[in-house]
């Protein structure tokens, strides 16, 4: 699967708008480097590279992308630092309240504790997402430069970016300091404050009350042995975690990690475990314990930064035939050394009845002579003599392989004397044949060694079925769990070529990288999974090989810098015969139980609005949905809605009435589908008028529709008249919507009011005409004329409004309206005739009076 297609899925989906523009940059390189593309380029001068112009262009683009990514990272780091400071402040306040015995509000204290625990988990998720985002962006830069080198053959752009841009190391992917600080805060919260804040009782400070009785069996338990080796140093811890037999309920898990996922996997590991070489000592410890802890921290810090060596001695045939599961390693003798002055040697009990081993500490300079069975000095120490005696008893035990790696050690955050877990992470693993002269050399690394392509993570737990850290890695896309695997088994099979291939050898042939799965959203927008943290579900393989980039490049995978993790039998280790096979009674009881599928409870998704900052890139969150919401209860001025509806109804009514009146005029009207109101015309008006059946046409014949021929206006009006009337009105028994009923009612009120107003005007004109004075005849006639004209206009408007109604009216209704309109017209004409008759009579009387006076 191509990287560009899964970039959003690989990265943090909610931060997709801040990803590198990988696809755009790849297309730009492809266009500028493909043959036959018409792109204007300058003719290179003498001594000038043909790709210099493209180098400068890509340098500017990549520099800008790098600045954008690092700016986003810095903003997120600042946010995490502020949240961590706030949590530490709240933890300090809670500690002071516990010390002062100010625990008088148990409900609020318990609520505060849960809030602090929730904040710590959210900060851990944010740090994990930040590591995932940074790792993906780093991979994107490396891949785009690899494509450029592949298509152009030029390395100048890579070199220039390494020196001028990438050397700033702003795009770091290691945020272990944040997780270490978070682990300290979480330890204080769970160890010191959990009891007082949840129970309301003061923490007991008496040393006698704090100490618990430890039985003799507990002192020799696997947890006690490994913790004792942890105090002795990192090499003793390495030997103990592999050779101490399992307890009653214990197990191991081995994982392989691809180099691209190493930093993110380390962040996930630090979410659940802590590095003994991390922070300072706990403040509760006394001075002697603090000094001892500081020495241990220093020794682990030096061991993590140095190469670790391990040489393996055994009989290869006995080793591959051994199927015991009593401890993680089946090796007979192993020696561990680094640059520390002391080395550690483990001797396993090879008898069938004994699986216990011995861990011896010898001088690193004397390690080579101690492992040589033919030479024994007279002044040798007791440990060296014990090693010689072991080699003399087991003559078939011979040197098989030497392993060189960089190892990091981790211990559980909440380890106790009863439950504990530990882990080792090996990177840059190289296997080579044993060279006796180089045993004990701290910086020795054989040039003929074979590099293992992945890093190896080993997690061991005691008195627990499956720890949280193992479940997190099993659900993660970052690792590949490999069963029946161990570091010693891999080294012996790599060095001894004549041995049959192991069961895990087929896993090396496939690409273990996977694409994280994006949670599916339900119809209501809620995730189908209860929670999606950094350990996403395992996805599909991503495809190409892992050897990408130049070894000396900042964004290239270093040689041997890979990480991998494998898993052993992750089950409970106890008696092999009883732990592996269930009893018949248990199997029968299980068959009687009916399986139940537990569906995770859906979390309600908070309401949010679209904004350009979070939702600016539609490709970033394709599954997210948003709505534009308008509050219907928003306060407005009184009557605004009623006025708006009334004016809207009036406008629609006048528009329809005007169109109907214009259609009656003796002009060439258009067809129904080509009316002036194009927005309201049906899309298939031509087909409806020509065919008459809107459902008769199909998609197969739409392209062959013949437009109707033009017809004369009169024949079309006679033909389409009934259809227009039937289509413009409602059916006789059709149920009208509230809007339609309101429109019909409004029209009825309007033309009824206009007719009533016309009669009022006519009555007033009649009164004025009958009682007007002769001296003010001009004013009286003007008033009568105005009243008659306005009354006739009201009658005409009423006629227009009644024709605008779509509801079918009864004959009585039409008769009443017709009589009233005719009465207005007749009365108006009569008033005008009477007015003109009065004017004529007054004029004649005035003429007679003048003649009589003359």
Automatic annotation (TrEMBL):
InterPro entries: SPX_dom (IPR004331), VTC_Complex_Subunit (IPR051572), VTC_domain (IPR018966), VTC_sf (IPR042267). GO terms for biological process: microautophagy; polyphosphate biosynthetic process; vacuolar transport; vacuole fusion, non-autophagic. It is a multi-pass membrane protein. The keyword Kinase does not apply. Residues 276-295, 528-625, 686-735 are annotated as: Disordered. GO terms for cellular component: fungal-type vacuole membrane; vacuolar transporter chaperone complex. Residues 1-162 form the SPX domain. Signal peptide: none annotated. It is found in: Vacuole membrane. Residues 711-721 have a biased composition (Basic residues). This is SPX domain-containing protein.
């Amino acid at each position: 699967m191509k990287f560009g297609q899964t970039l959003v899925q690989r990265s943090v989906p909610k931060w997709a708008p801040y990803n590198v523009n990988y696809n755009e940059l790849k297309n730009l390189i492809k266009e500028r480097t493909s043959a036959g593309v018409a792109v204007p380029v300058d003719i290179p001068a003498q001594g000038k590279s043909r790709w210099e112009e493209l180098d400068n262009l890509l340098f500017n683009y990549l520099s800008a992308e790098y600045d954008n990514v690092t700016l986003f990272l810095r903003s997120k780091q600042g946010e995490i630092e502020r949240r961590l400071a706030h949590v530490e402040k709240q933890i300090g306040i809670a500690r002071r309240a516990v010390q002062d015995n100010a625990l008088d509000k148990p409900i609020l204290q318990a609520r505060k504790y849960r809030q602090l625990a929730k904040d710590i988990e959210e900060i851990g998720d944010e740090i994990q997402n930040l590591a995932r985002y940074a790792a993906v962006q780093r991979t994107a830069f490396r891949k785009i430069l690899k494509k450029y080198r592949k298509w152009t053959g030029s390395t100048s752009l890579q070199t220039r970016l390494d020196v001028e841009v990438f050397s700033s190391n702003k795009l770091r992917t290691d945020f272990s300091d944040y997780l270490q600080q978070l682990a300290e805060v979480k330890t204080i919260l769970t160890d010191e404050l959990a009891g007082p804040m949840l129970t309301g009782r003061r923490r007991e400070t008496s040393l006698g009350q704090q100490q618990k009785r430890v039985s003799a069996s507990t002192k020799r338990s696997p947890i006690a042995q490994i913790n004792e080796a942890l105090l002795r140093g990192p090499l003793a811890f390495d030997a103990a975690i592999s050779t101490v037999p399992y307890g009653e309920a214990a197990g191991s898990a081995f994982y392989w990690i691809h180099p691209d996922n190493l930093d993110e996997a380390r962040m996930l590991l630090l979410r659940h475990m802590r590095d003994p070489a991390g922070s300072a000592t706990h403040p509760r410890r006394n001075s002697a314990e603090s000094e001892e802890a500081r020495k241990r921290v220093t020794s682990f810090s030096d061991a993590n930064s140095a190469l670790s060596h391990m040489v393996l001695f055994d009989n290869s045939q006995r080793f591959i035939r051994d199927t015991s599961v009593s401890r993680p390693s089946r090796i007979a003798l192993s020696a561990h050394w680094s640059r520390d002055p002391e080395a550690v040697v483990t001797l396993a009990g090879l008898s069938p009845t004994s699986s216990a081993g011995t861990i011896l500490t010898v001088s690193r300079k004397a390690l080579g002579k101690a492992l040589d069975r033919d030479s024994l000095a007279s002044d040798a120490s007791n440990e060296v003599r014990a090693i010689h005696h072991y080699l003399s008893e087991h003559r078939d035990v011979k040197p098989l392989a030497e392993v060189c790696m960089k190892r990091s050690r981790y211990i559980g955050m909440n380890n106790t004397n009863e439950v504990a877990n530990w882990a080792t992470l090996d990177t840059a693993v190289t296997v080579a044949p044993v060279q006796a002269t180089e045993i004990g050399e701290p910086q020795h690394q054989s040039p003929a060694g074979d590099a293992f392509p992945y890093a190896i993570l080993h997690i061991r737990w005691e008195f627990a079925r499956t720890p949280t850290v193992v479940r997190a890695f099993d659900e993660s896309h970052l690792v590949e769990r490999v069963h029946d695997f161990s570091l010693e088994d891999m080294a012996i099979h790599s060095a001894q070529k004549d041995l049959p291939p192991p069961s895990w050898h087929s896993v090396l042939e496939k690409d273990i990288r996977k694409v994280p799965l994006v949670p599916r959203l339900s119809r209501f927008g809620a995730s189908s999974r209860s929670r999606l943290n950094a350990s996403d579900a395992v996805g599909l393989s991503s495809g190409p090989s892992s050897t990408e980039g130049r070894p000396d490049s900042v964004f290239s995978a270093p040689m041997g810098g890979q990480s991998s993790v494998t898993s052993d039998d992750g089950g409970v280790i106890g008696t092999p015969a009883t732990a592996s096979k269930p009893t018949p009674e248990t199997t029968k009881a299980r068959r009687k139980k009916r399986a139940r599928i537990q569906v995770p409870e859906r979390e309600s998704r908070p309401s949010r609005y679209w904004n350009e900052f979070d939702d600016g890139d539609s490709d970033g969150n394709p599954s997210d949905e948003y709505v534009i919401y308008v509050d219907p209860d928003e306060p407005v001025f009184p009557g605004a809605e009623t006025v708006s509806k009334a004016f809207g109804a009036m406008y629609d009514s006048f528009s329809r009435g005007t169109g109907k009146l214009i259609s009656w005029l003796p002009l060439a009207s258009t067809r129904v589908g080509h009316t002036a109101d194009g927005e309201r015309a049906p899309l298939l008006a031509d087909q409806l008028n020509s065919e008459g059946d809107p459902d008769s046409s199909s998609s197969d014949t739409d392209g062959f529709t013949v437009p109707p021929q033009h017809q004369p206006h009169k024949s079309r009006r006679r033909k389409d008249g009934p259809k227009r009337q039937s289509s413009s009105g409602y059916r006789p028994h059709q149920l009208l919507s509230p809007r339609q009923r309101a429109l019909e009612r409004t029209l009825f009120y309007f033309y009824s009011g206009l007719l009533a107003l016309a009669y009022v005007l006519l009555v007033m004109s009649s009164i004025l005409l009958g009682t007007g004075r002769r001296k003010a005849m001009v004013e009286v006639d003007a008033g009568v004329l105005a009243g008659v004209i306005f009354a006739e206009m009201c009658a005409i408007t009423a006629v227009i409004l009644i024709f605008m109604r779509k509801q079918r009216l009864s004959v009585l209704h039409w008769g009443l309206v017709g009589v009233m309109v005719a009465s207005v017209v007749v009365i108006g004409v009569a008033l005008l005739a009477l007015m003109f008759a009065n004017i004529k009579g007054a004029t004649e009387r005035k003429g007679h009076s003048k003649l009589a006076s003359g």
